[in-house]
Amino acid sequence: MDDIAKTHQVYPDQTAHSLPFSLPLVSVIIVNYNYGRFLKQAADSVFEQTYPNIECIIVDNASSDESADVLRDIQSRYPSTKILQRTDNGGQSLASKEGFEASSGEYVVFLDADDVLLPVFVETHIFVHLSLRVPVGFTSADMLQAVETRFVLGTFYGFSEYVRSGRGKKPGLLRRIDEHAPTVWRLHSPDASIEAQIHLVEPGDVTGWYWAPTSGNCFRRDALRLFLNNEGLATLRSCTDSYLLRGVGIMTGSVLIDRPLAVYRLHGTNVFSKQPHLHCMVHYEKDSPTDNDQLGRKLVIDHLIANAKPFVKKSCSVHHYMNALTALDDAWPPIASRVPGCPSYLGGKLVSESTTLAREVGLGNFSAWLWQRKVSLQVFLSTYLRCRKEKHHKQLRAE
């Protein structure tokens, strides 16, 4: 059996029923820049998945190494692959956005070109999504860490700390799709331990970093739509996960799958980590002025405020929207504001976007929110009076 046929094999009895439906399509988007030496293994791992309904899209960021030759080989070996070759290196976030726009799956996985998916990655994520009683924006599974061809760690620290704490354990979180709708799930089933390995991260919880890096996550398409329509993403050239996981997670929640389902390769040029984790020792420069996690949070805050009307309308309540922004503002490390009298980034945004936000969340809610952000009394009074005046003028115009 050749590789393509093996990838799309149908398990016994999968087509025995007559339901006019199929399992969801999963789009795996590989973003590559000068990782030609790793790219083939990443692509092979997509086409070796046990899940039968996958499309693969590769976005090349104008690589100057051997990537062009590798891409031709991949196209020959896997003709269904869609390859987008950019004429310039626009960074990871822009390439991810373009790959998303070229995809059509109900679920989306962003695979870094230097990482590898284990064969049951997609199957396990989709099983969990279809079995969850609580709909979330994405699932995140743990990852092995490898140096060259050798594994050195079986987890990521923040992920395991959340699991070890016992947080997110909810009774009845899963209703197994294979047991309760066996004509739908005709694939191999995860063993019973999967039910004890699911942890819910509630919307609004960004007090720490709990998730796997980019390649360990599986997003629902409708959740990504909320955040990938952001032209400001071009400024985040790497660590796109710092934007997507914070943004999607803060509004829709997420689920951790306590199984290592992919391999994160350490090779000395990774932005996220250049060495294996050590307990109580961070693996990056905390005070780096180019902290992409901080930039990612800033972009989420800006995006939520710039699109206040649709986000408030889509939120279960106005307080869900407000609390999400507050949690992002309070997460470590702090983001400084350039607005005088405003000690936090969100406080500065509340002042500069006051008339819009007061209109969308209501003047009373806005006033309490502004005071909570500890702006100076002078700034509070001037902002409140400006919003009150604008509200009064709007009422007069309506009359």
Mean pLDDT: 91
Rg on CA atoms, Å: 23 Å
User: What does the main sheet amount to?
Assistant: 10 strands, mixed
User: What is the H-and-E element order?
Assistant: HEHEHEHEEHEEHHEEHHEHHHHHHH
Helix content: 40-55%
How far is it from the N-terminal to the C-terminal residue, by CA? 74 Å
Strand content: 15-25%
Number of helical segments with 4 or more residues: 16
Which structural class fits the helix and strand makeup?
Answer: alpha/beta
Shape: globular
Low-confidence stretches: 1-16
| Total beta strands | 10
Structure, described:
Strand 2 (54-60), helix 3 (67-77) and strand 3 form a beta-alpha-beta unit. Residues 1-16 have low confidence and may be disordered. The protein has 16 helices and ten strands. Helix 15 (363-372) packs antiparallel against helix 16 (377-398). It has helices spanning 3-7, 36-47, 67-77, 92-101, 121-131, 157-165, 177-180, 221-225, 241-252, 292-306, 308-314, 318-330, 345-352, 354-361, 363-372, 377-398, and strands at residues 26-32, 54-60, 82-85, 107-112, 116-117, 138-147, 150-153, 198-201, 217-220, 254-266. With 399 residues, the chain is an alpha/beta fold. Strands 1, 2, 3, 4, 5, 6, 7, 8, 9 and 10 form a ten-stranded mixed sheet that branches.
Question: How would you summarize the topology of this molecule?
Answer:
Blueprint: H1 3-7, E1 26-32, H2 36-47, E2 54-60, H3 67-77, E3 82-85, H4 92-101, E4 107-112, E5 116-117, H5 121-131, E6 138-147, E7 150-153, H6 157-165, H7 177-180, E8 198-201, E9 217-220, H8 221-225, H9 241-252, E10 254-266, H10 292-306, H11 308-314, H12 318-330, H13 345-352, H14 354-361, H15 363-372, H16 377-398
Parallel strand pairs: 1-2, 1-4, 2-3, 6-10
Antiparallel strand pairs: 4-9, 5-10, 6-7, 6-9, 8-10
